[in-house]
């Protein structure tokens, strides 16, 4: 017997329709590439998304055709999130920080038909457009009078001219909720990038889950600043959850430096922000010497790489801001776990609570996770035993676009498929997961594993250290030994010996790094994560002390 409830597909267009009807006057504020601040409402957004949908229909684009962006976080990008997917096409957000050859490769692989870009990326588009034969239309996300005259890009149109010529009247089509809605390529640290292809169903379910109280806890009373770029796994789904909750949205545009972000938080009374640790490092680095404080910011989600305890501490103790440590990946839309306390933790002393908050957190409903050993057997949830982390759920990839990378899922005894995350983790009895390492970064010393994240966290707790990256170096007896590359804070002094002494008593003696290498900067990847492959290349002539 089937239930007798209305059968309505979960479509991205329903999110913007909802925001239009129920939160029409909630504000969306954007810093534009031009430098000024732009303001409008969800009602305006919805009308312009419908104009865009008409423009896409007008050029004869088919269902599931790909429309790409090279753009910062801003209102026009947000219109594309809804206009492109809502009308049945697939939004392909390209990371502009990738190498131009890689961008051309991705655009070709995705067979993008339209590519819309912020003027910041004009030189990049000039460099790659001739290598992108599938792109029929190039659109600059700008006013008509800003369109560069001799760009050399055939048929370049301004976005405003393009959508302005079309009506805001449009009936969003209804189709199968499993249809593709957007795509995002992984950074391709191993081989060519692979694309996760999200569906309307997966995106809508993820949007619901992300808004839950123990997840991002978004509401119509929040003012939300996604610092995490809209080209980094759909800004962690915030644009969709924002439409669902009707929160005020604040977009930073191209101004991603600490000062600009801080000023925007204050000016727009931001209560909630989200970003990777390196962004917050920059902002705190701006605030501390100037003695600045937040007047409205209450919570911030930090994820994408391990959040150093010193940062969680600084946010809480110095600025009264609660840090929500999150873990996820492109293949997971991206949210997997988020760290919020359970009732039983509330009576614990502060330091004990902090130990829990440092973990990557508990699974969100919709994500099932487990850790397994080399033989594939599930390992205990004791907070000590570590193993490969596997996940499954309705917003986790089944396979990649065009079958790249084969069939990634691992079958269990019941034949259910689990996605191997490539992370090594522990899970405690309360279900809190803690990442030890990415499997390729784990350091194996004398048959035992050493967590590079633990070492980095300790180094970054030292007042003189701004950033730290730990890698394993070949050792004839131990296989590998850890060393830590560190960047000193401006004007701060610390010697190799002092830093090594700082590790004593914090981890087992044999886990303490063999050496400290002082560097000017740690190489960062396109999404602000430490690029250990590059660091290892830079250290290729390095020899461990005594060898
Ligand atoms: P890519 O895999 O292409 O670098 P993702 O953004 O998908 O890009 O990265 C996912 C990976 O980032 C995870 O598998 C994990 O290794 C790491 N990661 C994400 N969040 C955290 C976190 N809070 N702590 C530690 N590692 C994290």
From TrEMBL:
It is an enzyme of class 6 (ligase). Its EC number is 6.2.1.-. Keywords: Fatty acid metabolism, Ligase, Lipid metabolism. GO terms for molecular function: ligase activity. InterPro entries: AMP-bd_C, AMP-bd_C_sf, AMP-binding_CS, AMP-dep_synth/lig_dom, ANL_N_sf. It comes from Acidovorax soli. It comes from the Bacteria. Residues 455-529 form the AMP-binding enzyme C-terminal domain. Belongs to the ATP-dependent AMP-binding enzyme family. This is Fatty-acyl-CoA synthase. One of its GO terms (biological process) is fatty acid metabolic process. Residues 19-401 form the AMP-dependent synthetase/ligase domain. SUPFAM superfamilies: Acetyl-CoA synthetase-like. Pfam families: AMP-binding, AMP-binding_C.
